[in-house]
């Protein structure tokens, strides 16, 4: 009787441990997959109008984004930031942008 109880307890602990490690593993795989997807997306996005030089995107920490980033201007009428090139009107009369 007593031995069976110990076995049951051990089995329960083993099951709990297995579930715990399973969740941990799944979470880690999810994180890795997310990071991979994000990296792939970033690589695809940075592919437009590329030159021959290999880009080192990881080194740019805290620096201003140059090249690809569009210049943003603030609309004096609505206060919204829009791209300087191809800006569209927000619909207000004072809005300087046409579109
Ligand atoms: Zn506006």
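^ Assign residues to that structure.
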């Amino acid at each position: 009787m007593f031995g069976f109880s110990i076995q049951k307890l051990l089995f329960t602990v083993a099951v709990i441990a297995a579930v715990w490690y399973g969740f941990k593993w799944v979470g880690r795989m999810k994180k890795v997959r997310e990071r991979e997807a994000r990296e792939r997306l970033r690589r695809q996005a940075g592919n437009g109008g590329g030159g021959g030089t290999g880009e080192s995107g990881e080194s740019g920490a805290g620096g201003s984004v140059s090249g690809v980033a569009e210049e943003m201007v603030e609309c004096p009428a609505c206060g919204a930031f829009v791209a300087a090139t191809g800006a569209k009107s927000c619909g207000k009369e004072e809005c300087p942008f046409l579109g």
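Residues 46 and 68 are 8 Å apart (CA to CA).
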